Amino acid sequence: MGFGSDDKKVYDLLNDKMFIVAANQRKYVWNQNNWREMLEDIDLVFENKTDKHFIGSVVLKKETINDGIKNHFSIIDGQQRITTLTIMLCAMAFIFAEHEEKADYEGLEKHLFVTDNKKNAFPIVSINANKYISKLVEVLYEEVNSHFISHFPLLSATDLLKKAGCIKVIKDCFLFFYSELKKRTETDLIALSNYLDIVLEIRYIDITAEEDEDAYTIFEVLNARGQALTDFELLRNYLFRYSNTEEKDNVKKSLSDLEELLQDEIEIFLKHYALHKYGAKTDKNENRPYKAITKQVKGNVTSFLQDLLLKASYYKKMIAFKDCSSLEYKIFSFFKPRRQQQFRPIVMGLMHQRDLGNLSDNDYEKYLEYLYEFFICYHIIGEKTSNKIEDIVYGYSYKIESGFTIELLNKFQIAMAERIPSKSDFINSIKRIRYSNQHKAYSGSRKREDVIAILELLERELGYDGSFDDITVEHCYPDAQDIQNAHIGNLILLEKDINENKCKGKPLPQKVSFYSTSKLEYPKIISAKFNSNDGVRDFDKNSQWVADKLFDRIKNVMLLSV
Fold first, then answer.
1. CA 521, CA 343: separation in Å to the nearest integer?
2. Fewest C-beta in 10 Å: which of 75, 95, 260, 285?
């Protein structure tokens, strides 16, 4: 391995260089905690509590690019620090400009720009490294130079960031340093010059690699020494290290597409992909997802990336609900706020088998609805935890992908149905369910949606097969009258038009005739029970009846033996 190391200053780091970012690097992810920690370390030097600040090692790789700029470097390790320092210097330059301190402002130019052999200036952080910071530097100097030369009014910091098109993290970083440095130097602008001197004197260890192989190896060594790298970053580094020259462009594009597609969900996706594709149960320690995946990838990078992107497109449906059928939208949008992630590897397999032609659209929707109804019965009504079904879900996730048959899906249903609570437990759980618009203990959109889902299952069991669009929860006896009226035995589904325009504010005797006109089944049953004086007010009896009906549905749909 060939590389050299030197003790240098930020003055040297941000001077006469253009930075690009290696394809195996992460995006800018620092947040206010990181920014504040860096600034507080600088404060210690400013307050003479320590002599100097040290930011560790920065690993670069010298690149040969024939564009007239002498020094190009790929950032192997240190991107977060270089990016943060650059944004901090931008904030300082803007404060100097606000105070008409032209000399100090112009003095920062060599730390934010690099010139080519024709004296053309370019932002030190290239478009490749971070297009938003590159644009910020350009717009900052365009606006301030116009202010000094033509005496145009200077934009506000907020308007500057808007004109530069900064994304939130860049904007937040700039405004953090802008506001904090203004507070520290408001009454003494010389203090800002002192802060700048301290920043430029910050020490670091410069490590420069000579070859790609050196860069990837250093990256892995740094991770082994405790750098907090994600599975996606480690997978990306692995793919670049072991792909051949012809594959690298495809690797770069595919991983960029993957990152754009899944964004913050990419880590949980890799965990679920490893389970779905390879049957690997992973964790955050020795059995990390990237290790499970890379064991299988060698020599098959192109086909692996094709499959990874295909499964990511399935995953996107589950987390963003785009390009979904109405049933998919209903189920995925119900699962996500309840943090039902456990079924995602199963659903990826179902989607894939449908695309392969092994599963019809009707069967796909049938098994998807099965998962939905199981979740309602097991988690919402039964109040059971997901760890009790973990082994079943994990085992069948891989089997559905690797050895699919309809018989296998039926076995999965039976295995899951065996975990449904006993009838007595199920009935007791139903009786505990409450929902109210008036009483806070039983209110909230989540409780309302849970009750709607349960009552929809009841309607299906009673024979209703239509749409549930424009359906609301109706309290037979008024919600506001008594907290006991929040009981599940007092709740039905009703069309919004009937509920709001015909029943609202009326006592039950005046509402039952409208219930009988509903397209739904349960309101008509309540109407008939009232007219026959069959104890509609007995909520416990009603909930027992609801529980019996739903348990019948479990027996029929989930193949449960009782």
1. 31
2. 285
| Cα separation, 448 vs 446, whole angstroms | 5
DSSP label at 156? P
Residue with token string 């240098």: 8
Measured distance CA(141)–CA(94) in Å, rounded: 9
Identity (one letter) of the amino acid at 459? E
CA distances from 405 to 350, 367, 396 (A): 11, 13, 11
Give φ, ψ of 121 to 5 degrees: -100, 140
The torsion angles phi and psi of 401, rounded to 5 degrees, stand at -80, -40
Beta bridge partners, 21, equal: 75
The structure tokens listed for 555 are 């027996």
pLDDT for res 136: 95
Residues 6+ apart with CB under 8 A from 468: 452, 456, 459, 493
- Assign 477 to helix, strand or coil: coil
Rounded Cα–Cα distance for residues 93 and 35 (Å): 18
Quote the CA–CA distance of 85 and 12 in Å, as a whole number.
13
> Which pLDDT band holds residue 25 (cuts at 50, 70, 90)?
low
CB 327 within 8 A of CB 365: yes
Give the pLDDT confidence of 432-486 residue by residue, as tens digits.
999 999 888 899 988 999 999 999 999 988 999 888 889 999 999 988 888 999 9
Q: In the prediction, which pLDDT does 1 show?
A: 44
pTM above 0.90, yes or no: no
DSSP character string of 497-513: HHIIIIITT--HHHHHH
3-state SS of 369-437?
HHHHHHHHHHHHHCCCCHHHCHHHHHHHHHHHHHCCCHHHHHHHHHHHHCCCCCHHHHHHHHHCCECCC
Best CA proximity match to 209, nearest among 3, 41, 403: 3
Residues 6+ apart with CB under 8 A from 268: 341
312 touches 262 (CB < 8 A):
yes
H or E stretch at 18: strand 18-21
Give yes or no for residue 280 having a pLDDT over 80: yes
Question: At a CB cut-off of 8 Å and minimum separation 6, what does 407 contact?
Answer: none
CA distance 489 to 433: 9
Closest CA to 166 of 127, 125, 134: 134
What region, left, alpha or beta, does residue 185 occupy, with left being phi > 0 and alpha being psi -120 to 50 degrees?
A: alpha
- Residues 6 or more apart whose Cβ sits within 8 Å of residue 10: 55, 85, 199, 200, 201, 202, 204
